[in-house]
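REQUEST ID: PR-0412
SUBMITTED BY: lab tech R.K.
PRIORITY: routine
TASK: structure prediction, single protein chain
INPUT:
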Amino acid sequence: MSEPRCRFCAGRLDISLVDLGTTPLANNYLPDTPEAIAAETAFPLHVKVCGSCYLAQVTENVDPTAIFRHDYAYLSSYSAAWVAHAGIYAKQIIARFDLGPRSLVVEVASNDGYLLRHFDAAGIAVLGVEPAGHAAEVARSAGIDTRIEFFNEQTARALLAEGYGADLMAANNVFAHVPDIKDFANGFSVLLKPEGVVTFEFPHLLNLINLVQFDTIYHEHYSYLSLLAVERVLGSVGLRVFDVEELPTHGGSLRVFACHESASHTMAKTVAAMRARESQAGLGGPEGYKGFTGKVETVRENFVAFINQAKQQGRSVAAYGAAAKGNTFLNYCGIGKDQIDFVVDQSLEKQGNLLPGSHIPILAPEALIDRQPDFVVILPWNLRDEITRSYRHITDWDGRFVVAVPELKVLEDVGA
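STATUS: complete
OUTPUT:
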């Protein structure tokens, strides 16, 4: 078996960031049947860093069609905070780049139309490109024109031939989701108008390392992105970064603004400042990636000790949020239905199924009231404030929320 090479530059993957073992796909929720459990598959989940371009990436190339299937369960609109984030972005971007009725906004990985609905409501033409059929159909039912396909250079050229040309392209939390990252980036170069703008949002690798966010690693995240790596990828297809913003979403993200090399958009000071921060953190060399595995192991040890103690004391433990990051976390920690009784989630598509790997049953949020667990582990820790505000009534039976990343905390005060 040949040694995996960098998915961007074909360089050697010399640096190991963390090896999380062998796990199932994080969004492949299982029907509660013996046949589904017996048929479940798992793949190595190991992140390495290229010694040439410093793109962090999983070594296993799982076929994206196996991940982003028609019934792919994630729908963006279930998170009120994420929908609000999209609305703020739309309002700001319309004003900044003077978008109007003659403009076209294209979103790649448009999911259920959560973002494009804001532009559509403002009278701006929109087009979504989304490979997961179920999500795309939800968007279409809301009146959002959506193509069901993966985005790449070929897709972009086909759209261009149909007469499409984008004034704005948006790609939120998808840059990391493509195995051929250069082909993906080239699609934006093809479809973007000469003075057009593309924005990419992605969890920042610097935060993943500093805040021990290892649970954001899963097979559908083929890459883990720094500004350093993104600028190299975009530069290879004739796009340049001219601004960058830090965002609180997903535990700390970057929003990168890019355009054609020849476009008139001026370079903001934020770009040089972020380059300097990443350089100081050592992301341009092997030293920036050392010691991460030890920190991850400590998180696991502390959480397993907490669960074991709770069980020894006869305390019941549930979880909130059937999130992909939670599945990485639980499977790495070796936690199953014997340790956590159930997980609740608002998604009707997930309810009644089992979490992949751990096989913990997914119930409706009302189960918290019915069963009144002593502890509720918040798996999507990036939504901690939203969840604790919405379910503060668990204190009525002396229940407590728990977060485990980046360190174990039992939240004595709801919303703390």
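NOTES: Residues 292-411 form a domain with the Rossmann fold fold (CATH 3.40.50.720).
REVIEWED BY: pending
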